C-alpha cells in the first residue's frame, strides 16, 4: 500500500538548509491504523505531507498503491489526492463561507459530480457522522468536535484508501478527542488505512501501530506486545478521567 | 456551461468583503464612466459643430475685395476696388474647374432700419444673390419658393425672407407669401420664407434676419452698375478648391491691375481648409478622450489586480485546502480569473450603462433648450462601447491571472500552514 524507501527531505531557508527527514523506510499495509509520534521538529508533519502528496521529497522513493509518487505535475497530484487520500487537519480547515453540506460535497465538485447528486451523497456522510441536523449550518456556528466531524465526512466522501490526519484532536478537549478517535477507528474498521500524526500518547495508544520519529529518523515502531504495554500505561489515565 | 458552484463561490467571496469589492469595482466603473462621458461629450461637440456645417458645400470658396497694399501699374497702394460682372462672365467661360459661381451684392445700409411694412420696421441683412447660391450654402423654403432663374432674367422685385423677418414684419397668423416689404425704398413681394440649413455665416449678421433678392434686381433697383461685392464658387468634383482659389486669385489680380505679390487686396476663404482644421480638431479631441479614458481605465484595472492579490493572500489557506482535497491548479486559476472578470465586467457594465444614461439625460435637456447650441446629440458609438467592454474583459483576465499564478505557485502545504 504505502512503501517509503530511504526518504530524505530538506527545507532550504535562505543560506541554511534544514535536513528534516534523514532516510525514512516505512511500509504500511492496507487497513493499518497508524499513529506517527515525535517531539516537535522530529519531522512527523513533513512525513505526513509527503505521504499526502502535499509536499515532495528530495531523495528515495515513495510508492502509493503501486504508483511511484515522484516529479508529478500538480494536476496529476491533485487527481491522485482526490482519488486516494482524505485529509483531516488540526484546525479543521473548512471553507468558512460554505455550510457543512457544501464543505463535505466539495471534493466531489472537483471530480465533476453534479450538484444535486453530490449534495445527496454529502447528506449521507453527514448522517453517518450524526450531523444531519447541522447540514445547513456554517462552520462558525459549530463546535470544534462538529467541525472535525464535518472535516472527516469531507475526507471520506471521495472514498479514499487512506485518511491522513494531522493532529486531528489537537484543538479539541479530551472527551471530543475520543469521539473523533472512535470515528476514525470505525473508518479503519471499514478497511480504510488511517494515519494520524499526534504528540498525545493517549491518542496514539488508541491506534494499532505507533511510529516514533526522532530527529528525522524512525526511532522505534511499537506494535503487538509492546503496544499492549504502551496502551496500558496511557489508556489507564483516560479511563479514570 | 453555467457552473452554479463557480458563481456562488464568486458571489460569496465578493459579498464577504462588500466594501473592498465596491472600492475595487468603483475604479473600473469610474474609468469606463469617464470614457463614455468624455467621448459622448466630444461627439456632441463634433455633432454640434458639424451639424451646422454639413449641408454646406465643402468644396466652396469665397472672395471679396480689400484695399490694395502694393502699388502697381501706376496705382498707389490703398486703392479701393470691386469685382465686376465681366469677371463673373469671364470666369464662367474660361475656368473650367468652376462648378457653381454665385456673385453677391450687399445693401449699402445694413445697419439702420432698412425694411418697412405699414407701421413695422426692421433692420435686416439684404443680399442680392444668384439662385446658384442656394446650392452652395443650402437654404430650404419653409413656405413658398426660392428665388429662381426667371426672377433673375426678368429682374423681378421679389424676395426670400428669413424666419426672424417673418416674426418682426408680420402678425402671428399672417401669411407672408404675396405680401410686400419696402426695402430701402423699393417694394418687394415675398415669394418664400427660407430656413438656413447651416450655421456657417458668410457676410455677417444672423441668418434668420436675412433677406435675399435677385442679384439682377438689386443691381438695377439700387444702381450698383456692374459692381460685384462678393462671390462664391464651388469646384468641380476632382478639383481641389484650394487650387481653384489660388488660380482665381491670380486671374483676378491680373484683371484688376493688382500686384501679383499683393497678399491683402483679395480677401478669400475656403471651406475645405476649415473642414480639414475641424476634422483635425475632432480627431484630437477623440484621441485625447481615448488616452485619458484608457488611462483611467488602466488605473481601475491595476486597482482590481492589486485587490485580487490581497484577496489571494488572504485566501491562501482556503486555496491550499481546496488543493488538498483535489482542486487542480487549473480549477483554482479558473475561479480566481472568473472572479476578477466578474468584478471588472459588472463594474464596467454599470459604468457603461450609467454613462449612457447620463448622456441621454443630457441629450433630453439639450433637445429642450433650442437655439444656437454647439453641443448636440451626445452619443457613444456601439463599436466604442463594445471595444471598451472587450478591453475590460481582457483586463479582468489579466488582473485575475497574475494573482492566480501566484496562488498556485505556493505549495498546498505552505498554503494550509499559512495561519495568517
Structural class of chain A: alpha/beta
In DSSP terms (H or I, runs of 4 or more residues), the helix count of chain B works out at 13
Give the count of helical stretches of chain A.
8
Reported by name, the CATH topology of chain A is Rossmann fold
For the record, the CATH architecture of chain A stands as: 3-Layer(aba) Sandwich
Give the SSE order of chain A as H and E letters. Answer: EEEHEEHEHHHEHEHEEH
Helix content class of chain B: 40-55%
- Describe the main β-sheet of chain B briefly: 12 strands, mixed
User: How do the strands line up in the largest sheet of chain A?
Assistant: 6-7-8-3-9-10
Structural class of chain B: alpha+beta
Report the span from N to C terminus of chain B: 35 Å
Tally of structural domains of chain A: 1
Q: Roughly what fraction of the amino acids of chain B lie in strands?
A: 15-25%
Q: Work out the largest interface and the residue count of each chain.
A: A-B, 30 and 25 residues
Strand content of chain A: 25-35%
How many strand elements of chain B? 14
* C-alpha-based Rg of chain B, rounded: 34 Å
Distance between the termini of chain A: 37 Å
Range of helix content of chain A:
25-40%
The ordered string of helix (H) and strand (E) elements of chain B is HHEEHEEEEHEHEHEEEHEEHEHHHHH
Report on the architecture of this protein:
The complex is a heterodimer of chains A (241) and B (420). With 241 residues, chain A is α/β, with parallel strands linked by helices. Chain A has a single domain (31-57, 73-240), classed as P-loop containing nucleotide triphosphate hydrolases (Rossmann fold, 3-Layer(aba) Sandwich), CATH 3.40.50. Helices cover 40% and strands 27% of the residues of chain A. Chain A contains eight helices and ten strands. In chain A, helix 3 crosses helix 4. The N and C termini of chain A lie far apart (37 Å). Chain B is α+β, with helices and mostly antiparallel strands and 420 residues long. In chain B, helix 2 (18-51) packs across helix 11 (329-368), helix 9 packs across helix 10 and helix 11 runs antiparallel to helix 12 (382-409). Chain B has helices at 4-16, 18-51, 85-94, 133-136, 149-153, 163-169, 215-221, 241-255, 271-314, 316-324, 329-368, 382-409, 412-417, and strands at 60-65, 83-84, 98-106, 115-117, 120-122, 125-129, 139-144, 158-162, 180-183, 186-196, 210-214, 227-228, 230-235, 266-270. At the A-B interface, helix 2 and helix 3 of A face helix 1, helix 10, helix 11 and helix 13 of B.
Amino acid at each position: 500500500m504505502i512503501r517509503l524507501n530511504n526518504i530524505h527531505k530538506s527545507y532550504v531557508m535562505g543560506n541554511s538548509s534544514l535536513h528534516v527527514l534523514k532516510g525514512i523506510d516505512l511500509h504500511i499495509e492496507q487497513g493499518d491504523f497508524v499513529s506517527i509520534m515525535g517531539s516537535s521538529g522530529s519531522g512527523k508533519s513533513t512525513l505526513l505531507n509527503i505521504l499526502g502528496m502535499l509536499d515532495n521529497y528530495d531523495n528515495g522513493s515513495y510508492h502509493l498503491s503501486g504508483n511511484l509518487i515522484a516529479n508529478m505535475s500538480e494536476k496529476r497530484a491533485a487527481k491522485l489526492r482526490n482519488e486516494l487520500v482524505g485529509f483531516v487537519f488540526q484546525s479543521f480547515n473548512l471553507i468558512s463561507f460554505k455550510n457543512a453540506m457544501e464543505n463535505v460535497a466539495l471534493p466531489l465538485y472537483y471530480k465533476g459530480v453534479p450538484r444535486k447528486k453530490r449534495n445527496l451523497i454529502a447528506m449521507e456522510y453527514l448522517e453517518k457522522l450524526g450531523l444531519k441536523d447541522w447540514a445547513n449550518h456554517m462552520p462558525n456556528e459549530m463546535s470544534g468536535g462538529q467541525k472535525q466531524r464535518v472535516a472527516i465526512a469531507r475526507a471520506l466522501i471521495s472514498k479514499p484508501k487512506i485518511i491522513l490526519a494531522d493532529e486531528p484532536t489537537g484543538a479539541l478537549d479530551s472527551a471530543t478527542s475520543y469521539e473523533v478517535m472512535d470515528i476514525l477507528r470505525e473508518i479503519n474498521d471499514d478497511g480504510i488505512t488511517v494515519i494520524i500524526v499526534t504528540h498525545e500518547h493517549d491518542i496514539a495508544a488508541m491506534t494499532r501501530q505507533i511510529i516514533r520519529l526522532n530527529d528525522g529518523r524512525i526511532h522505534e515502531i511499537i506494535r503487538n506486545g509492546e503496544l499492549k504495554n504502551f496502551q496500558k500505561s496511557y489508556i489507564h489515565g483516560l479511563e479514570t478521567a | 456551461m453555467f457552473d452554479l458552484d463557480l458563481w456562488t463561490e464568486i458571489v460569496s467571496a465578493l459579498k464577504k468583503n462588500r466594501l473592498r469589492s465596491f472600492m475595487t469595482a468603483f475604479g473600473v466603473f469610474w474609468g469606463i464612466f469617464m470614457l463614455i462621458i468624455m467621448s459622448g461629450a466630444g461627439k456632441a461637440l463634433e455633432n454640434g459643430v458639424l451639424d451646422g456645417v454639413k449641408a454646406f458645400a465643402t468644396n466652396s470658396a469665397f472672395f471679396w475685395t480689400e484695399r490694395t497694399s502694393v502699388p502697381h501699374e501706376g496705382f498707389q497702394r490703398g486703392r479701393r476696388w470691386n469685382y465686376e460682372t465681366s469677371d463673373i462672365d469671364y470666369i464662367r467661360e474660361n475656368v473650367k474647374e468652376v462648378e457653381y459661381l454665385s456673385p453677391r451684392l450687399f445693401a449699402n445700409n445694413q445697419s439702420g432700419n432698412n425694411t418697412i411694412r405699414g407701421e413695422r420696421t426692421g433692420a435686416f441683412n439684404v443680399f442680392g444673390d444668384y439662385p446658384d447660391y442656394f446650392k452652395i450654402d443650402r437654404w430650404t423654403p419653409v413656405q413658398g419658393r426660392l428665388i429662381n432663374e426667371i426672377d433673375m432674367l426678368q429682374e423681378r422685385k421679389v424676395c426670400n425672407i428669413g424666419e426672424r423677418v417673418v416674426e418682426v414684419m408680420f402678425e402671428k397668423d399672417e401669411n407672408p407669401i404675396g405680401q410686400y416689404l419696402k426695402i430701402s425704398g423699393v417694394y418687394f413681394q415675398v415669394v418664400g420664407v427660407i430656413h438656413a440649413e447651416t450655421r456657417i455665416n458668410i457676410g455677417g449678421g444672423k441668418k434668420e434676419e436675412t433677406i435675399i433678392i435677385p442679384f439682377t434686381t438689386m443691381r438695377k433697383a439700387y444702381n450698383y452698375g456692374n459692381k460685384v461685392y462678393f462671390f462664391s464658387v464651388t469646384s468641380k468634383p476632382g478639383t481641389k478648391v484650394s487650387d481653384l482659389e489660388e488660380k482665381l486669385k491670380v486671374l483676378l489680380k491680373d484683371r484688376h491691375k493688382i500686384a501679383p505679390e499683393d497678399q491683402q487686396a483679395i480677401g478669400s476663404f475656403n471651406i475645405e481648409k476649415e473642414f480639414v482644421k475641424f476634422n483635425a480638431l475632432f480627431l484630437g479631441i477623440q484621441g485625447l478622450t481615448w488616452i485619458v479614458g484608457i488611462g483611467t481605465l488602466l488605473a481601475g484595472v491595476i486597482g482590481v489586480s492589486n485587490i485580487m492579490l490581497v484577496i489571494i493572500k488572504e485566501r491562501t489557506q482556503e486555496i491550499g485546502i481546496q488543493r488538498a482535497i483535489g482542486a487542480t491548479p487549473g480549477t483554482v486559476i479558473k475561479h480566481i480569473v472568473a472572479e476578477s472578470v466578474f468584478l471588472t465586467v459588472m463594474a464596467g457594465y454599470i459604468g457603461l450603462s450609467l454613462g449612457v444614461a447620463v448622456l441621454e439625460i443630457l441629450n433630453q435637456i439639450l433637445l429642450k433648450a433650442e437655439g444656437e447650441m454647439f453641443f448636440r446629440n451626445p452619443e457613444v458609438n456601439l463599436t466604442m462601447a463594445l471595444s471598451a467592454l472587450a478591453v475590460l474583459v481582457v483586463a479582468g483576465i489579466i488582473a485575475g491571472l497574475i494573482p492566480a499564478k501566484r496562488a498556485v505557485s505556493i505549495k498546498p502545504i505552505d498554503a494550509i500552514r499559512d495561519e495568517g
